[in-house]
Amino acid sequence: MKNSLALAIAAVMSVSLAGCSSEKSDTVEIIESSAAVEWHKVSAQNLAPYQQRDVRDEVFYFVMPDRFENGDVNNDNGSATKLESRGGFDQTDTGYYHGGDLQGLQNKLPYLHDMGITAIWLTPIMRNQAVQHDGSGYHGYWVVDFTEIDPHLGTNEELKTLIEEAHKLNIKVFFDIIANHTADVIKYKECHGEDGKQWLGETAGLCDYKTLAQVAAGDTYTPFVVSGSDDIKVPAWLNDSKYYHNQGDSTWEGESAVYGDFAGLDDIDTDNPYVVQGMIDIFKDVITEFKPDGFRIDTVKHVNIEFWQEFSPALLEHAKAQGIPKFFMFGEVYSADPEYLSQFTTKGNLQSILDFGFQSAVQATLVDQQGTDVMAKLFAADTFYKDADSDASMLVNFTGNHDMGRFAYLLKSKHPQMSESEALARIKLSNAMMYFSRGVPVVYYGDEQGFVGDGHDRDSRQDMMPSKVPSYNDDDLLGTTATTADANFDQEHILYKDLAYLASIYQYHPGLRISEQETLYSQDTPGILAFTRTTETEQYLVVFNTALEEQKQTFKMPFAGYEPVVIAKDKTEQDREVKINLAPLSFAIYKAQAQAQAQAQEE
Questions:
Q1: How many CB atoms lie within 10 A of CB 24?
Q2: Residue ranges of the Glycosyl hydrolase family 13 catalytic domain (predicted)?
Q3: Statement: residue 232 has pLDDT above 90
Q4: Beta partners for 249?
């Protein structure tokens, strides 16, 4: 009888040692033990052409262009003619434009290519309202014009050139888009002054949310636009307040999460059929003009799910007609619950989402130092994502971001006395988990240079170019003597080199990208997590040690021979039992030998 490579495999021995508290980490020697047997240098140019590539072949780099590199100082102050998009430039303030732009990003494409990056995800780049409340639109999420690139970042032609140059390196470019809201232009007479300035300096909550029941009973706000802002939105229909919910500020719970204003931003009425078609047309035009390779979609859960049911298929069909057959969209749903998240890829028709569940599990395992069973429970819920056109292998993995903060910050804030060597080892292990677990890895810009940060949001959006922000420049970066006052594009940085190493393994072995994953072993303390990655013709054994001591584990496998991809401290094999000894905070990968697979299938 032939053995299927996808059959269940059972682990047969328990872990020999348990983990200990990281508060003693300064006495623990972290050994560099995970090493590839042969490092095959693979980059985007060695992969299939970008037009043909599956998203699961990608390594993403998530970048905020304003904070990356200033390639053209002439655009630092934005538009010379459109006042709503002019100004907001202050390199010393975390909440204002710092001068990074599309030209700067283009200049650094070789830096990304050499790190193994195959896809760049840009924060929103459409024209923003430059200043509102106590900050600027440097992040891109305050759009007023969906047809023009924000002048602080460059021009439409410069964006096209960036995409063209990235494509020459076989690197894809993804846009971050918003369908939930626009910039804060609409005010309410009941809670704003006639000039709308009463809002300034306040926080969301000034205009209490009015429920659907209140609105139905006639208890509504009276929307208005301050003189001079009547026609600043493009396309023009967005200037009409009837196409917005106008129900006041979201409390982030219940119906207000969908119908309320997101921190005061104008909440688009995506229940309205005219609006649905209008938003579809907006992003069809974006695809037609710029030919991006896909979209990351912001604030997905704050839009009624029926909208996505129409939006996603329409754009995918249009992209194919525009010659982008592998166009891919993934949404942001800020929740760690797989059952909740999955409804947006099944019922909601989106191809994928950012896997906040993965981020939460990695944080629990390597920051909070819970058992590896946290990861196993996450993977056990992958069945929620299975439908006709998607599954968990298409989820987008990450360990930290521009909202919650960097993984290094989460780690150091929890364990301020942790040694640098242990912090780096945990970060490297988190990256290995991100690359070799099912899903698509995303590197957050600056992580490869040891950026830590002081918190979330603005405090996690440091400059890669020399910064003038005091609160950034006093950070103690990991793995370097540099600070953010320096340019941080060091290709010899330990984390840059490690990410390039992981990418080369990932890209050299298709079976570590597109394959079935099955958990072999986990435990309720820090220690071993093991799973297989299996295709019709290949099988990989992937093992992690999250503990601060060596861990030994034996696995009964279906084949007689496993050759090393990333070596463990020690590995022996007999009678289809693989015994692995892993150093602290390390991982190993072994691949079943082709002849052993063939022999097993003949049995």
A1: 13
A2: 62-506
A3: yes
A4: 261
Q: What is the pLDDT of residues 533-581, one digit of tens each?
A: 999 999 999 999 999 999 999 999 998 889 999 999 999 988 899 999 9
Question: Residues with Cβ < 8 Å from 478, sequence gap 6 or more?
Answer: 408, 420, 423, 424, 427, 450, 452, 495
212 domain residue, yes or no: yes
The three-class DSSP label of residue 549 is coil
Q: Nearest Cα to 36, choosing from 597, 586, 594, 601?
A: 586
Give the pairing of strands 586-592 and 539-545: antiparallel
Among 467, 513, 462, smallest CA distance to 487 is for 467
Q: Is 381 exposed, middle or buried (0-12, 13-18, 19+ CB in 10 A)?
A: middle
Give the per-residue SS3 of 40-90.
CCCCHHHCCCHHHCCHHHCCEEEECHHHCCCCCHHHCCECCCCHHHECCEC
Question: Does residue 474 sit within a domain?
Answer: no
The answer as to whether 500 is a domain residue is no
| pLDDT over threshold 80, residue 20 | no
R_g of the chain computed on alpha carbons: 25
Burial code (b: 16+ CB inside 10 Å, e: under 16) for 59-77 equals: bbbbbbbbbbbbbbeebbb
Angstrom CA distances, 591 to 35, 185, 511, 562, stand at 15, 57, 9, 5
Using CA atoms, how far apart are residues 158 and 513, in angstroms rounded to an integer? 33
Domain span holding position 203: 186-267
Q: Distance between CA atoms of 549 and 186, rounded to whole angstroms?
A: 58
Quick one: which of 140, 396, 178 has its CA closest to 283? Answer: 178
Give a yes or no: residue 225 inside a domain. Answer: yes
Q: Please list the active-site residues.
A: 298, 332
pLDDT at 166 over 50: yes
Exposed/middle/buried for residue 110 (C-beta within 10 Å: 0-12, 13-18, 19+): exposed
Query: How many domains does the chain contain in total?
Result: 1
Beta strand pairing call for 186-188 and 294-297: unpaired
* Number of neighbouring beta carbons within 10 Å of residue 455: 14
